[in-house]
């Protein structure tokens, strides 16, 4: 089945904001991957995710404090940005900066700096550089900035 939207999210939004986002999209008839059933299971199947990115027209990235600490999130982000650059795909990428400053995403600053330093000690340098490039690029895209507070839950 072709998905209309691929959702990439950090673990820290899985049971709150992202769950509500998936419900809202599905309630208006938009096909989302991963759907709420997959979100609840928490299974990450890289090949399945890569295929879902390829089959989607749009990717929504929920960039949260935990996003860059996840190798799978950064791998998804890299695949998404590669697809965005393919001129025949016309893939749309919409970032949601959830309780993070977009400038910290652009510059891999703040708590993201620590996440990338940890990846640099564990991963090949070229892979980490690819992730950093994709992360910085998504930080330059127009999106939604949700600063947080008691009313965004």
TrEMBL record:
All copies of domain TIR, residue ranges: 1-153
Entry annotated with the keyword Hydrolase: yes
Alphabetic keyword roster: Hydrolase, NAD
EC number: 3.2.2.6
Chain segments annotated as transmembrane: none
Top-rank taxon: Eukaryota
Catalytic activity: NAD(+) + H2O = ADP-D-ribose + nicotinamide + H(+)
Top-tier EC class: hydrolase
InterPro entries: TIR_dom, Toll_tir_struct_dom_sf
Protein name listed in UniProt: ADP-ribosyl cyclase/cyclic ADP-ribose hydrolase
């Amino acid at each position: 089945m072709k998905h209309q939207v691929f959702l990439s999210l950090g673990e820290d939004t899985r049971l709150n904001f992202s769950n509500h986002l998936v419900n809202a999209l599905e309630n208006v008839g938009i096909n989302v991957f991963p759907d709420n059933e997959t979100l609840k299971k928490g299974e990450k199947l890289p090949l399945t995710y890569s295929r879902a990115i390829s089959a989607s027209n749009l990717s929504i990235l929920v960039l949260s404090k935990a996003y860059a600490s996840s190798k799978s999130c950064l791998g998804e982000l890299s695949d998404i940005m590669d697809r965005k650059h393919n001129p025949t795909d016309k893939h749309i990428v919409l970032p949601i900066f959830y309780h993070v400053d977009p400038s910290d995403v652009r510059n891999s600053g703040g708590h993201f700096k620590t996440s990338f330093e940890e990846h640099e000690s564990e991963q090949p340098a070229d892979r980490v550089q690819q992730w950093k490039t994709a992360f910085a690029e998504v930080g330059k895209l127009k999106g939604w900035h949700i600063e947080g507070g008691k009313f965004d839950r």
